[in-house]
Amino acid sequence: MKKGFTLVELLAVIVIIGVITLVAVPNIVKTNKQSVDKQYNDFKQTVINATETYVEIHEELKIKALATDGITIEVKSLINEGFLNKSLEHPIDKKQIGDASANYKVNVKAEGQGSVVTKITYTFKES
Questions:
Q1: Which single residue of 8, 59, 72, 97 has CA 20 to 30 Å from 31?
Q2: Domain ranges of the chain
Q3: Which residues contact 74 (CB under 8 A, 6 or more apart)?
Q4: What pLDDT, in 10s, does the model give residues 39-80?
Q5: What is the DSSP letter of 89?
Q6: Is-above-0.85 flag for pTM?
């Protein structure tokens, strides 16, 4: 008598592996996308937090943002003044934030009356 598997047994194993793959791959892709989305949101929040600190230190920027329709702060300014590390990497395009080709900005809009700022909104922009 020969030892080994029959063709039917081998086909059954291949079908089972195929079914497991059909179930597992979409879940892996979904989890990976969720991970990248979270990394991107964390990246944006890091830049916004650095901008908030920058604006707090440069008090005149609040008044300028209030007097105009808002101001734009380039991330390069945050890097040059030490608020961000230039090696911070964008999670999607993998560019370091300090690369010459990276063009990230934060729009700062202030609300209030007179010279009293009551609310500041920060919006991350890529271009």
A1: 97
A2: 7-126
A3: 103, 104, 105
A4: 999 999 999 999 999 999 998 999 999 999 899 999 999 999
A5: B
A6: no
